[in-house]
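User: Predict structure, ligand SN-glycerol-3-phosphate.
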Amino acid sequence: MSKPVKAAVFGTGSWGTAFGMVLADAGCDVVLWGRRPEVAEAVNSTRINPEYLPGVELPGNLRATADAAEAARDADFTVLAVPSQTLRGNLADWAPLLAPGTVLVSLMKGVELGSAMRMSEVIEDVVKVGADRVAVVTGPNLAREIAARMPAAAVVACTDESVAQRLQTACHTPYFRPYTNTDVVGCELGGAVKNVIGLAVGIADGMGLGDNAKGSLITRGLAETTRLGVALGADPLTFSGLAGLGDLVATCSSPLSRNHTFGTNLGKGLTLEETIAVTKQTAEGVKSCQSVLDLARRYGVDMPLTETVVAIVHEGKPPVVAVEELMSRSAKPERR
Ligand SMILES: NC(=O)c1ccc[n+]([C@@H]2O[C@H](COP(=O)([O-])OP(=O)(O)OC[C@H]3O[C@@H](n4cnc5c(N)ncnc54)[C@H](O)[C@@H]3O)[C@@H](O)[C@H]2O)c1
Ligand SMILES: O=P(O)(O)OC[C@H](O)CO
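Assistant: Predicted complex:
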């Protein structure tokens, strides 16, 4: 009998823990790494991650540790699930510990501030590996629904399709259906920009602007995501797939989305400080809206919704003024 696939998951937050559960349910031996020993201890002794997934019983072939070397040892897949803005620093510590030949898998949906690099680019830069050793998991995957084993599809992307296929097999369960894709650029941008549009839709929902506004924001948000993607060499069809439209619809419809909820609180009139204070988990769009806009400016791409989110979140523009300005932009054809 062949040995079970071994996966190390770095990050015991909501998605790291839930995706660890998916891998374990698919038959992998899973070790979760968390920076706080008490979280690892709680997972091992109670089979529950009380802070991030209370009430979810984790499978017996998943254990946790606060020792990064122990987690990384012999891992076929090294899965990264920390906030996008801390990845570079975290990975610098972990790089010397990684198993030779391991495939690095990004679960993150952000763009690095300053460098405007996608997460797979940060991984290649820090670990000094080629694109064929880096994969991305993305799509409409709200962690709490996956943890409840509710059905969802996802995308596993790698420039090397055979690597994507190995990962697909390693995480395919009766409730989690991964599709492969070789358009890593498009898949990552879909995930990062949907968080920004999720903020915009949340703001509109908080202001009570209705479902026409929501449909309009989702569609125009997808249009600007696609424009950016095409400028960066992505396949435009990726954005009508799970990593684009699929994730955008889930995020913009769900109260489980941290980005959508963050925006809703701002739209209801909470200040940025008050909204940050009530947000317990990572809402990537809050920082990535700035790096996505930087990327758009570098490539000369017009992203009015992203620009508006940056103005509301980081420059204190009142949402009412932002709506007036968006609606009075010069008239243009839908496609150009
Ligand atoms: N939660 C979801 O539904 C979901 C689904 C798909 C993708 N994602 C993406 O996955 C990534 C992780 O999100 P999450 O939901 O697990 O976030 P989370 O806030 O639930 O957990 C983040 C984890 O990172 C740890 N962490 C925070 N700062 C750290 C640091 N400086 N060094 C090391 N660890 C640190 C936290 O302790 C926690 O364990 C994000 O990019 C997010 O966009 C989340
Ligand atoms: O909670 P959010 O807003 O980070 O969204 C979670 C996932 O990305 C949805 O696919």
